[in-house]
Amino acid sequence: MPSPLTIDDFKPFSVTCELRYKNAYLIYDRTGQVIEDVRESFTDINVSTSSPQQTAWVTNEGTLTLELGACRVISTRPDKNAEAFAKHCKAFFDAVTHHLQIGVFTRIGLRYILRKEYKTLDESKAALASMMLANLKPTKRFNSSDSPTEILFRWEDSQIGAFVRLKAEMVELKATVPPEFQDIVPKIDKKINGLTLDIDYYTVAPVDREQWNSQEWLPEKMRLVRKEVDGILGGGK
Amino acid sequence: MSDTGTNITQIRVNEPVRQFEETATRTINSDESTFSSASGISFETVGATALAPVIDIERLYETLPGSTSQIVRALELLKQAIDFLSEARKSENPMDSDRYVQRAQLALPKLFACRSIGDGFGVIINSLYFAFTNLHGTPLTSDQLNVVWRILRELRTRPVMSLEQGIQHAEELENCGLEVNPPDLGDLLEGYESAE
């Protein structure tokens, strides 16, 4: 029997911190002020998409998104304890809450996505099945596969919620290069098989702005997520 | 309420995998909204003193053993101080009451070390520290005890309060007869005011 996986067997894919709030109509006047405020905290800021209701910026530290009812920071190179990520979140979220006059967050979410590559999709499915997470006998169900190819657990009470999703899947990376550059840069068309581990830890009850400090909350929750996921992968300890 | 947004959609899942995904319904599709009790709660203040229902601070910062978080440490210290002040309020013997206040006072230097949590936090802890110093051992009056207890409870519920909120609470301490400025600064201000 293969030894149980741990979260360290997976490669971080992205980490996201998202704040949701009641529609903040000051977004129509102050989006520029928000990004001016955070200029010194991020390098190489470029506008990715822009509309009155949603603006996204790509920076070396991650992607910043500001919407009418939410804002988020996404990093594809997260540090293990999320301390640097938390610092960047604080800079962006402080500017958003200040300029958009947000007093209550209806939801705070920390989403951590990791992947473990396998040579084939069947290997990925076998790895998921070997974990026996769903405690189901391997038998054909719904005239489909013997074992589930995706497992999702959700825990939720009136204050805090979390889900953990594991999926054996094949992802396809495709990028089309303009014809005049195709001799220099080859077309990207790659299939990657693996297990995706997707964790979302979030608040259910509203959070007052004066309760939440991202620099304190994020590293602690990342530690919690890693420990809980290790317990689940290790056989539900 | 849908899940935390992510840019994973930039990677396209190959068609053969997609077509075996579950039938999308409102209740089981992972990309759909999830039930949240928050959706039925109004965030509007009702009445003059009602507070919006917010998350329990213990749950927000619930952590694993061995945490180095300043805010977790501060919440523990504030709880200890509030518990001692609660005992002091209940005590009918002034000597016992003062003893409990002195125990609560011991948490202040440790809380001072956590002042980077927020500007409001720093202002309140500084003000309380100097308020006790300026009392020179005189016990708190019943009114002062109630105000200090209430402000620490408020600080524990909203530890990241703004500078303005912190100053407002420092003024409440002053209004109940506590001197919240450092002794030397008080002398300086007095000298400045008399010179004017």
What do you see in this structure?
With 237 residues, chain A is an alpha+beta fold. Chain A is 25% helix and 38% strand. Chain A is built from four helices and eleven strands, in the order E-H-E-E-E-E-H-E-E-H-E-E-E-E-H. In chain A, the strands form two sheets. Chain A has a nine-stranded antiparallel sheet. A two-stranded antiparallel ribbon of chain A has the order 6-11. Chain B is built from nine helices and one strand; from the N terminus they run βααααααααα. Chain B has helices at residues 15-18, 57-60, 70-90, 94-105, 107-112, 119-135, 142-157, 163-175, 183-195, and one strand spanning 12-13. The radius of gyration of chain B is 24 Å and the shape is globular. Strand 9 (160-175) of chain A pairs antiparallel with strand 1 of chain B, so a sheet runs across the interface.
Please give a quick description of this structure.
The complex is a heterodimer of chains A (237) and B (196). With 237 residues, chain A is of the alpha+beta class.
Radius of gyration of chain B: 24 Å
Helical coverage of chain A, percent range: 10-25%
Low-confidence segments of chain A, given as residue ranges, are: none
Tell me the β content of chain A: 35-45%
Task: List the keywords.
heterodimer; A: 237 residues; alpha+beta; 4 helices; globular; B: 196 residues; mainly alpha; 9 helices; 1% strand
Task: Give a topology summary.
The complex is a heterodimer of chains A (237) and B (196).
Chain A: E1 11-20, H1 27-38, E2 46-51, E3 54-59, E4 62-67, E5 70-75, H2 83-99, E6 104-105, E7 107-118, H3 121-130, E8 150-156, E9 160-175, E10 188-203, E11 207-208, H4 214-233
Antiparallel strand pairs in A: 1-5, 1-7, 2-3, 3-4, 4-5, 6-11, 7-10, 8-9, 9-10
Helix pairs in contact in A: 1-2, 2-4
Chain B: E1 12-13, H1 15-18, H2 57-60, H3 70-90, H4 94-105, H5 107-112, H6 119-135, H7 142-157, H8 163-175, H9 183-195
